[in-house]
Amino acid sequence: MVKRILLIAVAGLVLAAGVYYFMSRSARETPAQQTAAASLPTPQVGIVVVQPAEVPYPVEYAGRVSGFRDIEVRPRVGGLLLKREYEEGARVTQDQVLFRIDPASYEVAVSRAEAQLLQAQAAVRQAEENFNRIEQLVRRGVSTEAQLEDARSQRDQARAGVQLAEAEIQNAKLNLSYTTVTAPGTGITALESPPVGALIQAQQTLLTTISQIDPAYVNFSFTDEEGRAFRALNERREKPISEKDLTVELQYARQAKYPQVGRIDTAAQRVDLQTGTIQARAIFPNPDGLLLPGQFVRVRLIGITLPDTIVVPQQAVSQGPQGPLVYVLGENDIAQARPIRLGPELAAGWVASEGLKGGDRVVVDGVIRVRPGQPVRPVPMDPKAAQTTGTPNASAPGARP
Questions:
Q1: What's the angle, vertex CA 320, arms to CA 45 and CA 388, rounded to 5?
Q2: Which residues form the Multidrug resistance protein MdtA-like alpha-helical hairpin domain (predicted)?
Q3: How far apart are the two ends of the chain, measured CA to CA in Å?
């Protein structure tokens, strides 16, 4: 029992001695630490002076390519399909021969019409001679006026018969030409067509479909809120942005940029009840057929700008307890934390919709070395260089309006 009491007493003395030693050491080191802190150099930081300006605001949407026009190829005459002159699914050009229908019966029709024309021409000659003969007899007083009128009527009917026969020839030749079916436009053909030897019915049988892809349509949609925001933006402008001021770029095939530039073609004047979006359509030249119907692309609208806008580089933005903030230099280069409200993200940085004004000096490089209320040594930076200098703050919020 006595040993246990002695052990407890010794342990208490050792603990007390340790506490005293560390407290006395802390008391001795505090002035030294304060001296070392005071001797640290003022941190150097890179700053930019923000000014309101009109900045480009490209916007992107998901889109899908569609053909400019789908053309159904149907025969104008019926008959047996003799031959298909193209490969199914291939690209064809306007007036290219696609199908050949058996022309035999139509060639016979042409010959029949030509024979009928010869008969009509012979009838005209006979009627002309009869009219001339009766006309001379009337002058001699041998024939009557009634006979002359009958002869004139027969002559006119014979002439009309010639015109009818000529029209029949034209119709027969036209039907004969329809036995060769040509492409009414340039585009991509469907993968299915009637087999050779099939009986083709005039105006009914669908031979193929040609999708005209030059130019090509690209359909996309935007929300009603985005539409209202664009109208509000236009109201702030002296000269509103029109569809003619906008150009459209495409990205496809692993972010590859489509070489042709398009334009806005039209936009629906109603909101889709199922998606709550407004449909829009752009049109692009597609001479090489790179854009295919059904293809997914990224639509990028160029030409929208934000007037009187302050943009701060991404690496200048930090996340504080109350939200995003930047460090602004005041008098004597004292750093101050300034809460801001972020707008959309641009290539140059974040739009600061609230919290900053023209002429503010914002810390961009060396943010991690800044302490609120402490002086810094500012070094001006080129705003363009500030966009690529440093690593964007990982805690920067992705806030959008």
A1: 40
A2: 111-179
A3: 76
- In angstroms, rounded to a whole number, what is the distance separating the alpha carbons of residues 337 and 329? 9
| Residue 119 DSSP SS3 | helix
DSSP 283-338: EE--TT--S-TT-EEEEEEE--EEEEE-EE-GGG-EEETTEEEEEEE-GGGBEEEE
- Could you give the angle at which helices 104-140 and 145-177 cross, rounded to 10 degrees? 160
**Sheet bearing 199-200, strands edge to edge:** 180-182, 97-101, 79-84, 199-200
Question: Regarding the domain delimited by 105-176, which CATH topology (the fold level of the hierarchy) does it fall under?
Answer: Helix Hairpins (1.10.287)
Please state which architecture CATH assigns to domain 59-66+212-306: Beta Barrel (2.40)
Q: Distance (Å, rounded) from C-alpha 323 to C-alpha 339?
A: 7
Measured CA to CA, the distance from residue 50 to residue 358 in angstroms comes to 6
Cβ-contact 302, 249 below 8 angstroms: yes
Q: Which helix (H) or strand (E) holds 354?
A: strand 349-354
Of 65, 70, 69, 59, the closest CA to residue 282 belongs to 65
The strand ranges marked E within 132-195 are 180-182, 187-189
pLDDT for 282-339, tens place per residue?
Answer: 999 988 888 888 889 999 999 888 888 899 998 889 988 888 999 999 888 899 999 9
184, burial (CB in 10 Å: exposed 0-12, middle 13-18, buried 19+): middle
Judge contact between 325 and 340, C-beta under 8 A: yes
Q: What is the pLDDT of residues 356-369, one digit of tens each?
A: 998 999 999 988 88
The whole model's pTM is what? 0.61
Neighbours of 130 (CB within 10 A): 17
Domain boundaries defined on the chain = 44-54+308-386, 59-66+212-306, 75-103+179-210, 105-176
CATH top-level class of 44-54+308-386: mainly beta
Cis preceding linkage at 344, omega within 30: no
Count of helix runs (H) and strand runs (E) in the chain? 5, 24
DSSP state, residue 277 = E
